[in-house]
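2.7 Reproducibility. Because tokenized structures are sensitive to small changes in the input, we list the exact sequence used for biotin--[biotin carboxyl-carrier protein] ligase, including any N-terminal residues retained from the expression construct. No trimming or masking was applied before prediction.
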Amino acid sequence: MPVDAPDLPLSSVLVPRLEWLSSIGSTNGELVARAAAQGWPDLSVVATDDQTAGRGRLGRSWVAPAGSALAVSILLRPRLPIPRLGWLPLIAGLAVARAADRFVSADRVSVKWPNDVLVGGRKLSGVLSELTTDGAVVVGAGVNTAATAEDLPVPTATSLAIEGATLTGPDPVLSAYLEELLPLYRSFVAAGGDATTSGVRAAVSERCATIGSRIRLELPGDIVVHGTALGIDTDGRLVVQPADGSGLLPVAAGDVTHVRPDAD
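Resulting structure tokens (single pass, no recycling of outputs):
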């Protein structure tokens, strides 16, 4: 069942503003709309456990039964060059993965570039970032918390509850996420958005299951590239060695329709 705002004591002390909504179409959409108003500083948060019109990358829908998932969006005002902002959803994904470590077996939690968090190869969470009109970034994460197998649309998805977590309430999960996200974000900003100097690039790369695997990239225009993911560059792009032996191909999240394991 959905919960009320007073049930969030652990999370509310971590950020300057936290708005819990009993139900909303999209936390990202709501926070993007609110961001231009006064009173919404860096690290402001909107969250719900009843998101009725959630969105993923490229406009894909993300909907879960009320009370079965946590949707959280955070407003970031890092004042960094645009190319560096591609790291923000990767940082959020790493934070979700580290938070999940607290509830399930840590050796099973990984990040799939560019925006998924997996447990045992099944999707636990997805991340979506959006620019606001004033140059800030809203980063949203949807985490399957109390969902049962029947709640989930595909067998390749999972939840904290399915993976054996005993604590799946919004406050424990949200506070764990924020506790992991805030130091990563602050270190990244303090380093001027340098993912290498801040240690973010190494941390994300270590947790990223995509690196080292054979993948199939599906690009706009029905272009398909088979290759091996070698790493993540300084701008957060996935560096791929195409199987045809051509030069290294760096791809940004916005340039990719799908990243899939390659069985060819």
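The chain has a mean pLDDT of 93.
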